[in-house]
Amino acid sequence: MLSPLAQARTAPVQAGAAATPKLLVDGLTKRYGAITALEPTRLEVPAGEFLTLLGPSGSGKTTLLQMICGLVEPSGGRILIDGQDETRTPVHKRDIGLVFQHYALFPHLTVAENIGFPLRMRGVAPADLTRRVTEALEMVHLGHLAGRFPKELSGGQQQRVALARCFVYQPSVILMDEPLGALDKKLREHMQYEIKRLHRETGATIIYVTHDQEEALAMSDRICLMNHARIEQLGTPHDIYARPKTAFAADFIGVSNIFRGQVRRDGSGAPMLVTGNGSFRLSADTPDRPDGALVVRPEQLDIDGDGDNEVRGEVVDTVYAGSETRVLVSLGGEETITVRLRRGTAPPRLGEVVAVRWRADAGVLVS
Amino acid sequence: MSAATLNHDGAFAAARRRLRFGPLWLAAPGLAFLAIFFLFPVLRLLGLSVQDLETSAWTGDHYARIVATDVYFRVLMSTFRIAGLTALLSLLFGYPLAYWLAQLPERQRGLAILAVMVPFWTSYLVKTFAWMVILGRTGVINQILSGTGMPSLPLLHNEFGVMAGMVHAMLPLAVLTMLPVMTTIDRRLVQAAETLGAPPANAFWLVYFQLSLPGVAAAGLLTFISSLGFFIVPALLGGPQQTMLAQLIITQIQEMLNWAFAGALATFMLVAALVTCWVYDRLFGLSSLSGESSGRTGAGQGHLRSAGMKILSALAKASTALGAPVGHALGPKMMDRLLPLYSAAVIVFLVAPALVVVPIAFTTSPFLDFPPPGYGLEWFRVYFNSDLWVSATIRSFAVAFATAILATLVAGLAALALARSSSRWRGAIFAFFLAPMIVPRIVIAVGLFYLFAQIGLVATDLGLIIGHTVLALPFAFVAISAVVKGHDWRLDQAAATLGANRFRTLMLVTVPLIRGGLVAAFLFAFITSFDELTVAIFVSGGVKTTLPKQMWDDMILQLNPTLAAVSVVVFAIVMALLLMAEWLRRPAR
Q: Would you tell me the Gene Ontology cellular component terms (chain A) (predicted)?
């Protein structure tokens, strides 16, 4: 049931919004007894957006997804699609498509019958149904497999059938629950392009769940990073990568070097972070806060190069990854930092003591 | 992956929420049916046993009479003796066969299991008739003996005859109960034990045997309980010394109309069955009967456990000591063949008797000579020209068909309800649906007879259908539950997200996918009813007789080759249905 408070909160939003969002999740929450699977959450998704719910296991992303499609009943809050309250609408009457983690293709139906199933449920005339199924099959390049049973298809082909079965009835919102989780790395990358293409061609609104940060960065218009049953940060991939708001966000997306410490001002009023590894200059636009974590990405670090800040350490490992080489530098004790080696530089020897430097404006101070 | 756990939690909560008006109600028809036609009549019968005949006052007289009267007390004792011996021998003979079946590659195992399924589903009447033909004074064995100039042996109407018939009847049940437990034992554990230094005998007794114990106990439980209520075998193959409780109950009802005394006898049987169940539950947990792990297995109580371990160690030592010289004498090649040879012998013992009946059905002699003097179709002609036999056959078909539909429908709804329910009543309801398998049939039959007599269902087809449905429900329920357990409920969720409502999801997704289980349930229920004698003895009769009842009446009066012809027809029908059920039970495509 909707609390008066929640109603009061949403009222001005509806009045003030220029365009109604395709999907509005408002104060949505889910509790299982004493366990909270999702704290009250607000999320707006404009039409045609590709939004990714990203987070570690148990962060609440799947719960949020399942509540949006109606498989799990919320403990509170509302779900609006095109401005219509759908919170209590039964699953089969919601205009939503869900691509399951393990595809959930009907094993007793052929590929064409699987794709035709949602159309049959909507009473589409047989001739129209056949045409649309054929179109959907063409869209995923599976026209030649219409008469096969799911069991006779490879994992990638099954995935395409699941996608076609979802796109064929053009639901308002398409939800995808780790759809590529069961595929190997190469096929997964290929299917990422396929899904992006389908998104471009159909203009569908897609909410995509994954725990793979590379997948999220590669595919999304916006990423909704989740942790501990709530939204940690919401923004474009570049936003989240370049300007993480928390140490968790910095750590979860990409590789980060994090130094924790107290913020001080030097004589000229420039901000400094005093850490166990020394004092570092912070970028001038750093917001005022007493302490924080300084995030510096590996590609912003330079071995024996220029920079405002410096740490010294011993090279403990170099990792060659094809397109780049990473150097692990031990700062003593458990602490290591990761440095991406500049192109054309020879990697340092193991055991060599090096100076790692970076510019003050390269780091981001987060909570 | 917590997405999976959340999924599960989601389903869990959803199930709990729907409980108010949701799936558990699907079990309601079955619960009501069993309450009226199973629980109530059985309790009523127990009530009768403590009532005075005239005054209806509470009395323990009937029980005192059983214990005080020597004849009755001896019957009680011989019932427990025969049932106990049958269970013991079935386990001893069955264990190696089950062990052999469990280690076969899957494809061959399927075929070999059929060799156990066939005798399991063969009518008790046909099997018993076959033993009469084999063991009789002029039967197969004695003919062979006299042919070689040896004196004939008294094989029938004594303890030997009963034990042969009983063990033959119960062995398949024992094997089929032990097998699922054995196939789930990871054989690598035995290999692990051997790499850790255990001689083969220790690896077997201390690892494999211990892991197979729940199956052994379940088999012992089921064979003992089923044997308790037996009357066909002791009545036809035994003598007065082998009279069992069920025979006494039938006499009390049919000849004396002494309900109270029959009730007291039935109570003894029921209490024995329930006590056995209770002991089993304490040791292993009843849920392991249906193949679910109870978590209690192996974690037995301290003293019992260490005593058991000592016994097993002693057994391991003994078999090492015994095995070494035997192995030496036979050579390694022969040792490897010992188990297959033994298993083949047991399978012959199981299958051969029913096959002996076939030539006799085609005999030209009016007697049960073996081998027949000539072959013809005379006795089939007698069968098909007899109004009595034909109408009994038709009635049996009709009743079995109705029973199969009713049982499949009721059990199907209940299995679907329980599969997705997380209610704390789930276990109790599950047990209730299996209960007609645990309570001896004779107890159910007598209880139903009393109820039917009051509401005018005696000698009606409806009465038969109701009685048979009670007995068939557990089989149908187990068959459907097994398939539903493997059903992927995410497919139903998928159907819902694609726009299918509950009913269409059920009809277009769930039912087609569990179809194999439904058909198997239908056929098992059909066979159960087609074969059923206990309820039919009381509820059918005169012009309303069923095929098994007609066979029973003939077998008690006089043996004749028509019975062989009928047996062959019954055997062929049941086999055809069984093969169909097995074939359909395999996953589609």
A: ATP-binding cassette (ABC) transporter complex
